[in-house]
Amino acid sequence: MQAYLSASVRYEVLRRLRNSKKLEPILNEVVETVADLSLYDRMEYQELQCQISSIVDTLPGKCREVYKLSRNELLSHKEIAEKLAISTKTVRNHITRALHELRMSMHELMMLLIALFLLK
């Protein structure tokens, strides 16, 4: 649950950064928030990021590229479409596919962890 909350906070901060005209106050807030996270929370967050990265790396080339432009570089669908010379609908389809793959892979990982926990 905490990993989910950390990821939610991260994406909200990134959304605010992208839409903000005054970045400095928000950056200061981010630095304070990260400093307040416990070592365990940071480790959980890093592990979640590693899991997501490994799943993203298994996506087909164009799908992976679109996902990374969207999530890592925070480009809009229109910006990605222009950069890759594809339609915005194609961008949306690639992101939908990537998110579906992430959800399915994370679900499988959670089921495996639950099974291991129950076997102990």
Description:
85% of the residues lie in helices and 0% in strands. By secondary structure, it is mainly alpha-helical. Helix 1 packs across helix 3 (39-57), helix 4 crosses helix 6 (88-119) and helix 5 packs across helix 6 (88-119). The protein is flat, with a radius of gyration of 17 Å. The protein starts with a helix and ends with a helix. The model has no long low-confidence stretch (mean pLDDT 79).
Number of helices: 6
Structural class: mainly alpha
N-to-C series of helices and strands: HHHHHH
The profile of the biggest β sheet is: none
CATH class of the largest domain: Mainly Alpha
* Percent range of helical residues: over 70%
CATH topology descriptor of the largest domain: Arc Repressor Mutant, subunit A
The shape is flat
Strand element count? 0
Kindly report how far apart the N and C termini lie: 22 Å
CATH architecture label of the largest domain: Orthogonal Bundle
Beta-strand content estimate: under 5%
Low-confidence stretches: none
**If you average the pLDDT, what whole number results?**
79
| Integer-rounded radius of gyration | 17 Å
The number of domains: 2
